[in-house]
Amino acid sequence: MSRALRFAPLALLAVLIAGLIWRLATPVDTNVSSKLEGQRLPAFALPATLPSKPGLSSRDLATGQPRLVNVFASWCVPCITEVGVLQQLKARGVAIDGIAVRDRPQAVADFLSEHGDPYERIGSDERSQVQIALGSSGVPESFVVDGRGVIRYQHIGPIEASDVALILTKLEQAK
Amino acid sequence: MRILILLLAMLCAAPALADSNLPPAYWANRQLPDQRQEAQAQALMNELRCLVCQGQSIADSDAELAGDMRDLVRRRIAAGEKPATIRGWLVQRYGSWISYRPTDEPAAWPLWLAPIALLLVGAFLIRHRIKLKARN
């Protein structure tokens, strides 16, 4: 066995350790992004969650103006802080619709009266079917939909105060 | 005594549940009456990746979203859709990530080539050994 070959296992170990350290330092992004960005919304029609607000269908999202579709739930903890930021966006003229995933009307009503209600329409997605059709993998997630009903941007996770500028830019670009 | 009260108080704390307040979807944990269709659904569900417990299939996962995906698969199979169509529909939305079945995209080539490469290395090593033995 040659001298160089004798050190091969050691070199292999060094490479392995370097690889492990690198992956620990820069973890993999486990978010699954929707492949529908840039494509037309799939056709859907969700019944109303609340008697006071209409439900949501894909036709309501092709009105000539960009809209923000927020996939949320009353049982989702990050959604509580997000709804405050959505209120800010609403105050700046953003049209926001909600998709309530696996939720009960009473729970949604309580959630909105406690934390604020930025939504024009709320569709009830009891079996996550529209969430899956949109390529969304959790709550909260938001989609910027342009006036023709094309998905222009997917935001994974809550929209935080620091994301307001980003969302406004995406909505502007969708005009 | 104080510690006991503290421990008892902890029992009352509402845990931050990341689960909804609805029961599982109808077909999430229920077999289709038609055995052939159920077998088709099972085979597909074993090859679809759960979006929540990544690394598990939707057949294995207890996540609510996995249950809703099983419901979706069973409903579509029951409606006469082919498993390949359902898989394609999901791949359109989540990318080939969602399916465990290896594809022929360039990213998967090492997976197909590795067994051949390992066989070649093995053959080379064996030949080397035989030569060494013959010389001794």
Topology of this structure?
The complex is a heterodimer of chains A (175) and B (136).
Chain A: H1 3-6, H2 8-25, E1 45-46, E2 56-57, E3 67-72, H3 78-91, E4 96-101, H4 105-115, E5 121-125, H5 129-133, E6 141-145, E7 151-156, H6 164-173
Parallel strand pairs in A: 3-4, 4-5
Antiparallel strand pairs in A: 1-2, 3-6, 6-7
Chain B: H1 2-12, H2 35-45, H3 64-78, H4 83-94, H5 109-135
CATH superfamily of the largest domain in chain B: Cytochrome C biogenesis protein
Counting DSSP H or I runs of 4 or more residues, the number of helices of chain A is 6
Q: Biggest interface, and residues per chain?
A: A-B, 26 and 24 residues
CATH-defined architecture of chain A: 3-Layer(aba) Sandwich
Task: Explain how this protein is built.
The complex is a heterodimer of chains A (175) and B (136). With 175 residues, chain A is of the alpha/beta class. Chain A has a single domain, classed as Glutaredoxin. Chain A contains six helices and seven strands, in the order H-H-E-E-E-H-E-H-E-H-E-E-H. Chain A has helices spanning 3-6, 8-25, 78-91, 105-115, 129-133, 164-173, and strands at 45-46, 56-57, 67-72, 96-101, 121-125, 141-145, 151-156. Chain B has 136 residues and is mainly alpha-helical. In chain B, helix 2 packs across helix 3. The radius of gyration of chain B is 25 Å and the shape is flat.
